[in-house]
Amino acid sequence: MDREFLIDLFADFGPVTIRKMFSGHGISVEGVNFALALRAGLFFRVDDVTIPDFEAEGSKPFQYSTRAKTVVVNSYWELPARLFDDSEDFVRWARAALAAAQRAKVKTRPKGKKAAKKKVAPKKSVAKKAAKKAVRRVGKAKRAHGSK
Question: Tell me: the pLDDT tens digits for 121-148?
Fold first, then answer.
């Protein structure tokens, strides 16, 4: 699927950001990725709320093969083909996919806090190491001068 096709397809949905990703495009709204357009088709973000709709349409999760195995990505399912011809229903499914992606984003921990903790932790361990070295130097100096 090319970019122009995707722009036309999502026209009734509203403004989306379409970026090159893997062998296709990632589609997002305000930084929340909710669809993947790949050679294999168009895949929408799903969760426990939306999976039953995809199952009822006979849809399957996105999968790809590596040299060693087949990887199934259960968070993205293929959009039923009938929706490419039904703009109103397509928009309803796209909004449900965006909602699923937003729910998933709420469940995950913000990256900023995690990165901040990583920066703080090494400073503490460096300070502890420096304190231990200072104690060792004092001990060596005392032993060298014969005091306890």
Answer: 555 566 666 666 666 666 666 666 665 5
